[in-house]
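seq:
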Amino acid sequence: YLPAWHVAFVCYENLGCFSNDMPWSGTIERPISRLPWSPEKINAHFLLFTRENLNVYQVNKDVIAASQYKPTRKTRFIIHGFIDKGDENWLLDMCQLMLQVEDINCICVDWKTGARTLYTQAANNIRVVGAQVAYMISVFKSFQQKPQDVHVIGHSLGAHCAAEAGQRTPGLGRITGLDPAEPYFQGCPAIVRLDPTDAQFVDVIHTDDETCYFILGFGMFQAVGHIDFYPNGGEHMPGCDKNIISQICCMFFLFHSTRDFVACNHLRSYKYYSDSILTPQGFMGYPCSNDDIFVFQGHCFPCANSACAIMGHYADTFQVPNGVEKMKFYLNTGDARPFSRYRYKVTITIDGSRTNMGYFLVALYGTKTSNQRCSFLICFSGILKPGKTYQLLIDVEKDVGDLTHVKFLWNNNVLNPLLPKFGATKITVQRGKDRRAFTFCGYEKVRENVLQTLSPC
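struct:
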């Protein structure tokens, strides 16, 4: 711990008192002492969306009865993070997507005045904003809405803000942490940060633990939920390229016009969540101890019975065993929208006229694909040996449904006067989500760049 400092308190009506005592400051993780601003200075607003009224308007405790809020519907809060604001497109878009699939009260929490300041101050202002969210939930009780029917979603600092609301709301149904902020929270006691005790169900998406020179990543790597998802390993997201400019910007926490460039990894968490609302099966998480085992060793596939969890909006469909927390799930995503991916294991036995260098590709066709529009996937590049069996894991952009046939193509990009031929004699495709396997057989060998179609056998 650091040397002693002056302990101070501030108290606010309906919210209680806040101190700068340990562990809120004076520790290695939180060396600078700050008290949260007053509610008036933070100036938080609560913006409600419903199916009856898709326009934004402010919701306060005095006007709830006159609003479109209905206690019979589930209520979902969305809280932004540092240097963000509640009427950003991503919050509004997330509400609109939710309202396509469910009849809810969707409330965006706009605390931009309290977020657009020094990071150390914003990291303490969330204590007051979280208390305000908890107070609003307590007001909902007077309308007969139960806390278990409330879900609080928070990005970055907003995730720890949700934790404050959960600590003050016994029986809160769910908290979703979208890449919870790392600086001033990683390694801190549970009272300071997001923790499984903050709600009946806590799910977390980690997307930015990648360090920025001597500065930590924007997001936590520490597991802090009942279930924690690490898409693409949780550090570097496909499509988020690092370079010297982004590293320098990162050092100064620039989140304005350059934030999507600088904090690309950090922002992917809410993009993945939004995409999962309409395509949940494309975000299947596989239980695994670490990313190396998942990616390089190919373990943790396929899903055992009810062992996989869907990352994002439908994560709460997963049944967490009693007393278990910090379960880790891994998956891969695309580098741009659509981010959803569907995982398969492909086992291919080939035959040919002679051993040859080259590569082969496979295309999957099923009940949900068009025969004319299907992309080939590079499955293997190296030595092609007759009679050899190759096994690979692939992530497909579209759900092909039940497989009906597959196509095989090979090439070596070298003019060979011997005109070698290769063909796939057997291809087995196993689907990750339910372990179902589809087997196809081929009975011919073809020259390079000639399609071979394999049928069920």
